[in-house]
Amino acid sequence: MVKRRKNHRSSENLRAENGSSNPEVSDAKHTNGNSKKEEEEPVLLADQAVEKKWKNWWVRTTWTLIMIGGFFMIIASGHLYVVMFVMLLQNLVFKEVISLSHEPNKERKLPWFRALYWYSLLTTNYFLYGESIIYYFKKSVLVDAFLLPLATYHRFISFMLYCFGFVWFVTNLKKGHYKFQFKQFAWTHMALLLVCFQSHFIINNIFEGMIWFFLPVALVICNDIFAYIFGFFFGRTPLIKLSPKKTVEGFIGGWISTVIFAFMFSIILIKSKYMCCPADNLSTSAFSGAECELNPAFIPVEYKLKPWMFRLLYHLFRTEIRHVYIAPLQLHAFVMASFASLIAPFGGFFASGLKRAFNIKDFGDSIPGHGGITDRMDCQFLMGFFAYIYYQSFIKSVASSSINILQDVINNLSIHDQLDLYMNLQEYFVGQGILPEKVIECTQALLS
Fold first, then answer.
1. Contact present, 133 and 413 (Cβ < 8 Å)
2. How many Å apart are CA 401 and CA 441, to the nearest integer?
3. CA 395, CA 296: separation in Å to the nearest integer?
4. Taking phi first (over 0 means left), then psi (-120 to 50 degrees means alpha), and beta for anything else, what does residue 336 get?
5. Where is this region: Disordered (predicted)?
6. Cβ-contact 208, 200 below 8 angstroms
7. Do residues 181 and 173 lie in contact, with contact meaning Cβ atoms separated by under 8 Å?
8. Residue 346: CB partners within 8 Å, gap ≥ 6?
9. Ranges of residues in the chain whose predicted pLDDT is under 50
10. How far apart are the first and last CA of the chain?
11. CA 163, 164, 165, 169: dihedral to nearest 10 degrees?
């Protein structure tokens, strides 16, 4: 009897440790539920009932136009509002993703469970956006007495904040729930990596120039619209099981349409300096005007057509066209459009697999006809990350300004050396006749 009771208690402890009273039965039920859902035949858009099909069409189209209109208003408001908009979307997506794994905690009632999620988000944002502010607004940050120490020790402060959260998590580990808590720890880091880190690069695109944010977003939206249209009217061949309504016809039609759109739309964008200029001042908007030296990617270049191209265009338009002007951005836009059509959709397929893992249809219902915020942003994060890497690799000018170089040198000097450099510069300018001699006398009087 004693041995049986010990064995019975040990089995109960094992079940408690796994977070389930009967894990084998629950796993079996979960597996059967999934298998039944996977066995259901997907219904393509072209095969849906006419009434339901067109009702979904109008709801989806109406809210698509509303979102596009609101998006243009935010773009015109200025860089600061666009950054705030991206940060808001990031937090909403993080909330939706985290909510998927929060439901099991309601029965466990673990302490500080949700607080750890949001602390991790705040710590990550402090590190990422601090890096961006220090890099893009170095002129303002490194001359401010309050911001300079924060900028100098930014990474150390960020690491210590992370360590505090790590210690917080470990001290809240509760017997019987170890496996569940470590799963949530890994889930939180996955959400931070896929949501926060990628949105960080999207915000960097905004600072580099509004066009590097707007064009990738527009390409994903364009591809989504045309893939839906081609799939709606012509889709017959399923593309991938993770997303049953996606078709090969929609995939290819969306790609061709997006490439054409990118080539033509980029011509319009390069005419706006507000779109092309970097964000030197966050108060800039579409109505305040912007001036800068344009990146060579925005300047059209003359291309001489080959004889066969000349003959083809003559037969088509009955006009002699021997030269064309194409901005390098239009060629870059072709690459971005191809990525937005052929690779970025796999961000959506990844999200579809995630939804199937949790047996949900959408991440939320905040957007009628579209689902949650995550359902609209699943491709945008991957596309924004690609746009940043592509821009830094092939487009951005590598020339550094003399001011940035000088600031890097000065910040590595001690206060005594900085003052000595300052006095030497004054003596140089006085010697060149640029400044009067009284400047040196006033400076010496102030320092004494």
1. no
2. 32
3. 9
4. alpha
5. 1-40
6. no
7. yes
8. 382
9. 1-40, 400
10. 92
11. 100
